[in-house]
Amino acid sequence: MTRRSWALFAAMCVIWGIPYLLIRVAVRDIEPGTLVFLRTAIGGLILLPIAFRTGGFRPVLSRWFPLLAFAVIEMAIPWLLLSDAERKVSSSLSGLLIAAVPLIGVLVAKLTRSDERASRLQLGGLLVGLVGVSMLVGLDFGDVHLGALLEILVVVIGYATAPVIMARRLADLPSVPVVCASLLLVAAGYLPSAIVQWPHHVSGEVVGSVALLGVICTALAFVIFFALIAAIGPGRATVITYVNPAIAVLFGVTLLGESFTLGMAVGFPLILVGSVLGARKSEPAVGGPEAAVAETAAVLTAEPEPGGMAAV
Fold first, then answer.
1. Distance CA 26, CA 32 (A)
2. What are the backbone dihedrals phi and psi of residue 304, each rounded to the nearest 5 degrees, phi first?
3. Residue 116 has pLDDT above 60, yes or no
4. What's the pLDDT at 307?
5. What does the pLDDT read at residue 312?
6. Helix ranges restricted to H, the chain
């Protein structure tokens, strides 16, 4: 890879590794629904000029139902539940539990592709990953709240399912308008909640966290991610999925003083190994979250064909 590619890759590893820390700080003064509104509104408004320059919203809104489904499953529900969960559990633990997304993605791929058969390697990876999640939660059981754990489970399922909707129903649409429209739809949905629950006092740290979430971790993140895909291809770009949780732990431990526990030390490597093995290509068909994300990323970053939508 070129220096520019490495820079983009490193940026994405950090940018999508720090939201857990920022959310943990933001929910000190802001309700989860208000935080989701602020993040999506900021991100959507920043992307708005780019969206108009890259195709506008008319073709996107013609697919309003899958667009709405994607926005709800990828952003509206997961970001609310993750924000609420981080009021009870550390940002480090949240980041590591989210690392189970590729494992759930493999299961989603199996359920949605009847022609795909799981290899022994994939099944072994799922088992190893499941053991890792069990170790992560079991060894640190005293620090885990059941309600927060269930919320993060729903987040993981949403993150693993939404790319399937994107790849199958929104793949031929330009990327930035799809993301921008999704963000603004979620922001509109949470506006009433934000008005009712608007905070009376917000610290400077919380203001900074919200700004970074909206500007860096949402708007800029998508722009950089699409540039990364264009530079190195969707397959290699998905490696950031395995680095982000480690970044989340690093920042949580060093900046928030969170504990690095035995469960993290034992569970995360197992989750990582299980995810890598589980996402391997099966024979003869291709499956797993890596394939789904790759397919999605490929169509999202395709150049528009003359007189049509983005090329598939």
1. 9
2. -65, 135
3. no
4. 30
5. 27
6. 3-15, 19-26, 32-53, 58-61, 64-71, 77-85, 91-98, 101-112, 120-139, 146-169, 175-196, 204-214, 221-232, 234-237, 240-255, 262-278, 288-300
Around Cβ 62, how many Cβ atoms within 10 Å? 9
- Separation of alpha carbons 37 and 190, rounded Å: 5
Name every residue whose Cβ is closer than 8 Å to that of residue 256 and which is 6 or more positions away in sequence: 21, 24, 25, 90, 91
Q: pTM of the prediction?
A: 0.80
Q: Is residue 305 part of a domain?
A: no
Euclidean distance between CA atoms 191 and 172, whole angstroms: 30
- Beta-carbon contacts of 292 under 8 Å, excluding residues fewer than 6 positions away, are 105, 108, 109, 163, 164, 167
Residues forming beta bridges with residue 310, ordered by sequence position: 304
Domain that holds residue 214: 3-300
Q: Domain tally for the chain?
A: 1
CA gap 3, 11 in Å, rounded: 12
Domain presence at residue 312 = no
User: What pLDDT was estimated at residue 292?
Assistant: 39
What distance in Å separates the CA atoms of residue 272 and residue 128, rounded to the nearest whole number? 9
In a domain, 163, yes or no: yes
Give the DSSP letter of residue 141: G
Residue 220 lies in a domain: yes
